[in-house]
Design a protein that fits this description.
Main location: membrane
Helix content: over 70%
Order of helices and strands: EEHHHHHHHHHHHHHHHHHHHHHHHHH
Largest sheet: 2 strands, antiparallel
Strand content: under 5%
InterPro entries: Mem_transp_PIN-like, mTOR-Rac_regulators
Protein name: G protein-coupled receptor 155b
Number of helices: 25
Oligomer: single chain
Membrane topology: Multi-pass membrane protein
GO biological process, one term: transmembrane transport
Number of strands: 2
Structural class: mainly alpha
Distance between the termini: 115 Å
């Protein structure tokens, strides 16, 4: 595979940049469509989470939806695609790479768990942990993302999602199920088991495994087509899977992190590492090793290798939680891990997809692409911060500490996003220098403020001030980052770059280092300042920082302008201000609808006529009879008393 050496001018240095000679055929993935696809998928997941958190859908109803997804929609989807698979266009090296990777990770997790787990739960942990580390959310989450990235460039990659499904569903998962069955029979009071019994339970009672087998047989028996009589029926079930599965995934996330304990934390970290780190790296390396035929000399080899990496990053499937619930084993680790891996996978997939395109991109628009990424993330983060700040103000928590510091941090993050959005428009106007300088001042004054306020929140408990003194202290702290930017404007030399991170050249890099190191006096440096410090030091001490510097710049952009996501996740869904009132409002709307159903127009005609006749002809007499009866009873009671 031929490469061409070139250089890209970024931050005042010529950075070596190797581009593939075969990249002239066009882009290997449509990166612009990835962000909307992620929003679509995780938006549906968020709707499911809100529905479950607000008790719009109860736990029993969620189980019903889960049964529909796992026993009807998914088996139909798998059957359909097993029948329609086109084996003629398949690059088999990819299948063998995924097979070797999944088997390797499965065996590694299984053996290590059997070695270190306690005998009371050794087999169930080995089976479920190995399934957790190898079964990806291929269909509900993976397919829409692959469709967005490769539909216009490599549409044949879409069928690979279904081609690799039998690796887990037919080969590895049954082994994990068998280990769980062994654990169940070992715990039974009268253990009776046989190999045939285990195979029967694992294969025949699992509709997913069963329908994959039937689908592969039907592929050859029906000539790669579904009969017209069954086609519409199967399409209806299969098409219902995507949205229902994502919504169910959101439902299953409610309350799962509360089950996480310190004892299960280590196991969870190791499992997520195996799933989101080891799996994609090994998968990509195996494609590089095994794809040595005709395909290896073309640009398709690189694209296939990148696709293998992205496939490995797909999070754990929600069906693993169903398996754990079915066997009533390891629910805490599996469900918590599913939640964490799903949310971690979104930024990892976005970052990975963008970074994988760097070797294929023309060096010229790289800086512009960095600005576009910052702009896109700022918009979404801004929406999250508006919500979070509103929640903080309405709940009046800012009157207490440390929420006063937290509110200042939110405001700084808000100004960072607003400034980045303004910068994206002003930087294109060559004659608006004053606007650029003012926006830059607001942007980096606010960004430096986020560094400082993070450190101040760690120190508040050691300070003894009255509330008014706290306000004065906050005002003083707010001035520091803007004074630093003011000094930069006076001493720095402005450049012509559109990148806000190098608008004032070397002096800006040195000022960023000072702002980060000022937090070092507070002893908790967080991830965000560390990333920016690493980027600045890398630039200072390397004549040619290399392509990794470009990738680090991307991570810094995501961290700087995506702070609102973390703030929203921690403070945006206040239980007393958001969750409970929302739930009460829905209940009142539901009850009012039930009351409307009992209006005269909704009552049957016979019942309405009977009520009308009673009121018109019998009501007065009934009242008189009741009064007469009550007086008679009172009189008899008085006589008895006397």
């Amino acid at each position: 595979m031929e490469t061409a050496n070139s250089y890209v001018l970024i931050h005042g240095k010529n950075i070596s940049h190797n581009t593939l000679a075969g990249s002239a055929v066009g882009p290997h993935m449509s990166i612009d469509k990835l962000f909307p696809a992620l929003l679509e998928c995780f938006g549906i997941i968020l709707c499911g989470y809100i529905a479950g958190r607000a008790d719009i859908i109860t736990e029993s109803q969620a189980k019903g939806l889960g049964n529909f997804v796992s026993k009807f929609a998914l088996p139909a989807l798998l059957f359909k695609n097993m029948v329609l698979l086109d084996f003629g266009n398949v690059i088999w090296a990819f299948l063998w790479s995924v097979l070797v990777t999944k088997v390797t990770v499965f065996v590694l997790v299984c053996v290590l768990t059997l070695m270190v787990a306690s005998p009371e739960s050794r087999y169930s942990k080995a089976g479920l942990y190995a399934i957790f580390a190898t079964q990806s959310n291929d269909f509900a989450l993976g397919y829409p993302i692959v469709d967005a990235l490769y539909r216009s460039t490599y549409p044949e990659y879409l069928q690979y999602i279904y081609l690799v499904a039998p690796v887990s569903l037919m080969l590895l998962n049954p082994i994990g199920f068998a280990l769980c069955e062994v654990q169940r029979w070992r715990q039974a009071s009268h253990p009776q088991h046989s190999t045939a019994g285990i195979l029967g339970v694992v294969v025949l009672q699992n509709p997913i495994v069963f329908m994959v087998i039937v689908g592969i047989i039907s592929h050859f028996a029906l000539g790669q087509r579904i009969p017209a009589v069954l086609s519409e029926f199967i399409d209806g079930l299969a098409n219902s899977f995507g949205g229902a599965a994502l919504f169910y995934l959101g439902l299953t996330m409610v309350g799962q992190l509360r089950k996480l304990t310190r004892d299960t934390g280590v196991a969870l970290i190791l499992l997520i590492t195996a799933k989101l780190l080891i799996m994609p790296l090994v998968c990509k390396d195996m494609v590089d090793i095994l794809d040595v035929g005709v395909n290896s000399t073309s640009a398709n080899h690189t694209s296939l290798s990148n696709f293998a990496f992205l496939y490995g990053v797909f999070p754990t499937a929600p069906s693993v939680a169903i398996y754990a619930g079915h066997y009533n084993m390891e629910l805490e680790v599996v469900t918590s891990g599913m939640v964490i891996s799903t949310f971690l996978s979104a930024p990892i997939m976005y970052v990975s997809a963008w970074l994988l395109t760097i070797p294929l991109m023309d060096p010229t628009p790289l800086v512009t692409e960095l600005e576009n990424v910052s702009f896109n993330i700022s918009i979404v983060s801004l929406v999250a911060l508006v919500w979070t700040i509103a929640v903080m103000l309405l709940s009046r928590k800012f009157n207490r500490l440390p929420h006063l510091f937290v509110l200042n941090l939110f405001l700084a993050q808000f100004l960072v996003c607003v400034s980045m959005i303004l910068w994206n428009f002003l930087v294109k106007q060559e004659d608006n220098l004053v606007g650029k300088i003012l926006t830059f001042t607001l942007l980096y004054g606010s960004l430096y403020s986020t560094y400082i306020w993070t450190g101040q929140m760690a120190l508040y408990r050691y300070m003894q001030f009255k509330y008014v003194e706290w306000l004065e202290y906050c005002f003083c702290v707010c001035r520091v980052p803007f004074l630093m930017v003011g000094g930069l404007l006076i001493s720095g030399e402005r450049t012509e770059t559109i990148d806000s991170a190098f608008f004032y050249g070397r002096a800006q890099v040195e000022t960023t280092i000072r702002s980060v190191l000022s937090q070092q006096r507070n002893k908790i440096l967080t991830v965000l300042p560390c990333l920016n410090l690493s980027s600045c030091l890398w630039w200072l001490f390397n004549k040619d920082p290399g392509r990794l510097y470009l990738e680090l710049q991307f991570f810094c952009a995501v961290a700087n302008y995506g702070q609102g996501f973390l703030s929203f996740g921690i403070f945006g869904l206040d239980r007393h201000l958001i969750i409970l009132p929302f739930k009460k409002r829905l209940l009142s709307l539901w009850q009012s609808r039930e009351t409307e159903d009992l209006s005269p127009s909704a009552v049957p005609e016979e019942v309405r006529l009977t009520c009308t006749q009673f009121v018109r002809y019998h009501k007065d007499q009934c009242v008189q009879d009741i009064v007469h009866t009550r007086e008679s009873v009172n009189a008899s009671t008085g006589e008895s008393f006397l």
